[in-house]
Amino acid sequence: MTLALPAPERRLLAQSGYERVSAYASADGGYGGFAQLVLRSPHPPAPRPGRPLLMPLPESIRAGDFVWGPDGAIWTGGDIGRFNRITPDGHASTIEVPALDAEPGPIGFDPRGGLWFVNYGDGFYNQAEPVLGRLAPDGKLTQVRLPSGPRPEGGAVVGADGKVWVVRSEYPDRGEIDRVGADGKVSRFSVGVEPGPIVTDRRGGAWFVESGPRIVHLTASGKRRVFPVPHRGFVGDLALGRHGDVWFTHWNRRSLPPAIGRITPSGRISERTVRHVGSPGSILAAPDGNLWFTTQFPRRIVRMTPHGKLKIWRRGAAAAGTIALGPEGNIWFGAGDQNTLAAFRP
To answer: Which string of b and e fits 283-314 if b means at least 16 CB within 10 Å?
Structure first.
């Protein structure tokens, strides 16, 4: 197919590297229709400080939830029996899994290179016995059926030891967190009402949010330690810091402005107010000590230095959903409703 672009569009494509355009096609004697095409220049520019690289994706790729693979590429879910793989320079391809008769949602890779995912095709969020899957590097597919219990809501994450933690909630009853190994063994932990976002630490434990609001640390043996969050409100997301501290986004704090909170390894809780940026959502603690987080209403991408100084970006904020650190050192954001990735150079 040949597509002729006006000169202004060619200049825009050369500057930005990517562009999504509408195209109309028709056949002789047949009906026509519109479609969205994603154009990529031969040599897209690299992300620069203060100028994010926006990467629109084809309609078949969902950028809302993505994980980084050991091959340095982004992996997302696709249609039934498919994953999508996107390299940092924008090349997209499809990975077919013939034995998978469901729509996968990636959770993350374990140390052995296996990709864990949720099985949406089996009604993952509705059925009493949800199914997890693992795709080994050699293509072998393993599926683990979780025991009957609350619905899987609030997230799932792969720990450094390769075990998967799954949050399960059934308001107003107590929730549950399952820890699943590659051998299919499931450990079950009863927790409080409405458990939410979860992250794992380097010692095999996990941190998660409970309604209250409270942040809870759960060891691999099931020992709990509860940290009540000041001023109540809503905890949006958690991130593990470089020194073992836990960072969290906090809003609706008894009519107070939103804040970014921190729990030190010794258990000390502190918060830093962030004004005029909207409600903080996802958060990432970068190795250089900076914090990156997204906001909603309006959508923004924000960087906070260790001294509390804020830098706000509006460009690229439409992609402010999932947030992750890439192996090349860039900060990546993705949004399923925009089908767009954005990369920032810290």
So the answer is: bbbbeeebbbbbbbeebbbbbbeeeeebeebe
> Which tokens hold the place of 69?
């693979």
Burial of 201 (0-12, 13-18, 19+ CB in 10 A): middle
Beta strand ranges found along 62-163 (DSSP E): 66-68, 74-77, 82-86, 92-96, 104-109, 115-119, 131-135, 141-145, 151-158
Tell me the pTM: 0.88
Cα separation, 239 vs 342, in Å, equals 20
Q: What is the pLDDT of residues 182-217, one digit of tens each?
A: 888 999 999 999 999 999 999 899 999 999 899 999
With contact defined as beta carbons under 8 Å apart, do 131 and 116 qualify?
Answer: no
Tokens of 299: 């959508």
CA distances in angstroms from 20 to 48, 60, 90, 337, listed in the order given? 21, 14, 13, 14
